[in-house]
Structure formats: C-alpha cells, structure tokens
Amino acid sequence: MNRTGSGHAPGHDHGHTVAGWTGTGMALAGSVAVGGSMVAAWYPGLVLGAGLVALSACTTWVLHLAGWGKPGGPRPPAGRGWRVRDRSAAQGHPGCVGCRLAGRGRRTAAPAATVPAAGAPACTPAVAPAATAGAGALPGAGVYGERAAGTEPAF
User: Are 91 and 113 in contact (CB under 8 A)?
Assistant: First the structure.
C-alpha cells in the first residue's frame, strides 16, 4: 500500500489535534473519577467528575475556536500533525456546529446591485422576478416555498 510520510494511507486523516487530545484526556479523567466515586459511594466525587466531563467539552470547544482543532473532512498531508494549528478557524468552518454556536461562519455576501441591461431604462430591473424562481419552483412560490400575497387557492 502506498503511504505518506506520516505512515498513513493517502487521503486518510485521523483528526488528532491538540483540542481532541486535551478534551479526550479530560473526559477520560472525569469518567474515571465518576466511576471511582460510584464504587466508593463518595457523592462529591460524582459531582466533581461530572463537572470535569462538562469542562472537557468546553475546553475542547475553546481550543477548536483558537485554531487547535480541525475543520471537517481530511486535511492536506502537511496539516495532519496533531500540533499543526488551523489558521482558517477565525473565519469559521463550513458546517461546523461549534463555529456556528460561536457566531462564526455566518457571513453572507452583500446583496448584488441590479445593473440595468444595455439599452434598458434605469427603472427596469435587469432580471425579471419570475426568472429567478428556478425551473422547479411552484407558481406563486416565494423564498422557502412561501406563497406570494394573493395567490392562495380559493376553496
């Protein structure tokens, strides 16, 4: 099998990161504390262990946002080391729930200005609204399938 310099198959990415290792270690320690506290019937240990598990999720999230995590999917071979920092974390990863919770990755492009077609008067839009509905759109359907005013069927 053809392997990369890291010893892994091409296109394979385990996702080992500082955020992942830190969160896993903290969650493991919290789970061991909860298990030991259950055996010893030490109730404060249950609370402390459960708190450590919750803290591990928060710590992993903060490290991910700081660039010590990884985006979804395989990374390029040069960025697969567990100590490689992700420089794209500041913009937010597409499809990442953690980045969306932090308010990242929701940037939308500014609406495009309509430019009149050559020879058309300035008050005429360049694209007719019916042409933007799409090929499979329902008649009278607006954004997200909402019906335009006055197009409700009469029963």
Answer: no
Residue 59: what residue type?
Answer: T
The pLDDT, as a whole number, for residue 125 is 47
pTM of the model: 0.58
Compute the distance between CA of residue 50 and CA of residue 59 in angstroms, rounded to an integer. Answer: 14
Distance CA 26, CA 24 (A): 6
Catalogue the E-assigned strands of the chain.
none
Q: Could you report the per-residue pLDDT of 25-44, keeping only the tens digit for each?
A: 999 999 999 999 999 999 99
pLDDT tens for residues 112-138?
555 555 665 555 444 444 444 444 444
Tokens found for residue 14: 């385990």
Name the token pair of 123: 């008050």
Cβ-count burial 3-28 (b if 16+ within 10 Å, e if not): eeeeeeeeeebeeebbbbebbeebbe
Instruction: Retrieve residue 45's tokens.
Output: 């240990």
Greatest pairwise CA separation for the chain in angstroms: 85
